[in-house]
Amino acid sequence: MPQEKKLMDANPDVVMTQTTINSAVEFFEMIGHENGCTYFSEDGNTITLASAE
Length: 53
Hints:
The chain has 2 helices and no strands. By secondary structure, it is mostly helical. The longest helix has 14 residues.
């Protein structure tokens, strides 16, 4: 049984998507922007990968 099938069977409520590293970054950036999160500070000097929320 393919690994993807095992994962899908074990997690029926999870939606999976195939991606490459470049499009994955764009995908998570899009989700972050929709929720008011950005990677860079307004001045562009710092990077934040987690928030206090």
